[in-house]
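Worked example

This section walks through a single chain of length 71. The input is the sequence exactly as stored; nothing has been trimmed or padded.
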Amino acid sequence: SQSRYLNIRVTENDWIVGDTGIDIQCGKELRIKTAAVLSGFLSETQLKKYNPDLIGNFVTDLNFNNWNQKD
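Given that input, the structure is written out below as tokens.
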């Protein structure tokens, strides 16, 4: 897939990790997997509204290798 805004090439193996809804929206726009971390100022409830693929307290808590796509 290729972003319509920038010349960025992404694959199904790419992830974006962020602590804001805009980070998650950016990943969704790029059609890549998204991970939200709670180390920012948004709560888990607030971040879940953006439907990230993974959520963890910190980046080191995220397990990308054992990630299974949601149904």
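What to look for: The longest helix spans residues 21-30.
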